[in-house]
Write a structure and sequence with these properties.
The chain is mainly alpha-helical. The chain has helices at 13-65, 74-84, 95-98, 101-110, 119-129, 167-184, 189-198, 212-229, 236-249, 256-263.
């Protein structure tokens, strides 16, 4: 009697390799999924950071650009007025001062002092203080077109203090200070100019006790006003100021080195 021998199945090497690979794939799949998810998460996180940073920078830029900006409609109202009467200022001022004509009127309107303060008075102030150089800085640290002293900018931090040179910021501050002086002086421009130069305490002293600078400043400022009100096309007082050193201030290269140091121009 013959015995029937059961033939055992022989697994081919290739088939064994497939079984092994399937087992390995099954074990490694969670790891691959985790790495893939981690990569996606990090990518989304990076995008979120970039978008957040961009939005923050845009918000900061908008905030900076809106610092001390006038109310909506004021500039449009002024533009219409300028079209109707272009020459608002006396035309005998230096050309550097006259180029700020529209800004002078705009900022007076902005602080609500257009009717109270003669626009030629603040133009004379700018003439004497900076001759229209918006980056002018004195040895005592006075800044900008109106040469406003640093203590008036105590609310600005180190970065923001350079806003003080911007005409949109500097002029309203200067005009506000001059307006307060004019009120204290009872509308007397001679006293108001002395107050702006030497501070309100100047008005508490007899003019004979004023510093020479304050007396000269008051004489020049009010003298230019008197010449304008007399209908003169050129001002002898303005010429006196120019001859006393003002001409140097009005030069194109005045404080050019300082401007480069501060603003990188």
């Amino acid at each position: 009697m013959f015995k029937i021998r059961r033939k055992e199945k022989v697994v081919e090497p290739e088939e064994s390799l497939i079984f092994v690979n399937e087992e390995l794939n099954t074990e490694m799949e969670p790891k691959k999924t985790f790495k893939r998810n981690l990569t996606v998460f990090l990518g989304l996180l990076t995008i979120l950071i970039i978008v957040s940073t961009t939005l923050y920078e845009v918000a900061q830029a908008n905030q900076e650009s809106n610092v001390f900006q006038p109310e909506v409609g004021v500039e449009q109202e002024l533009a219409q007025g300028m079209k109707e009467n272009k020459e608002i200022l006396w035309q005998g001022f230096h050309s550097r001062v006259l180029k700020w004509e529209d800004k002078i009127v705009l900022r007076l309107k902005e602080i609500g002092a257009y009717q109270e303060i003669d626009s030629n008075a603040v133009a004379a102030l700018i003439q004497i203080e900076s001759c229209g150089h918006k980056h002018a800085t004195s040895e005592s640290g006075a800044m900008g077109l109106g040469q406003v002293m640093p203590f008036h900018w105590a609310n600005l931090d180190k970065k923001e203090k350079y806003y003080a040179y911007r005409p949109a910021v500097n002029l309203p501050k200067a005009f506000t200070i001059f307006g307060e002086c004019l009120k204290k002086a009872g509308g007397d421009y001679y006293l108001a100019f002395a107050c702006y130069n030497g501070g309100p305490s100047t008005l508490e002293k007899d003019p004979s006790l004023w510093p020479d600078e304050a007396r000269r400043y008051a004489r020049w400022g009010s003298g230019i006003m008197n010449d304008i009100n007399s209908g003169l096309e050129t001002s002898p007082t303005l010429k006196e100021w120019m001859d006393a050193g003002g001409a140097f201030m009005c030069e194109d290269n005045f404080q050019k080195d300082l401007r480069i140091k501060i603003f990188g121009e």
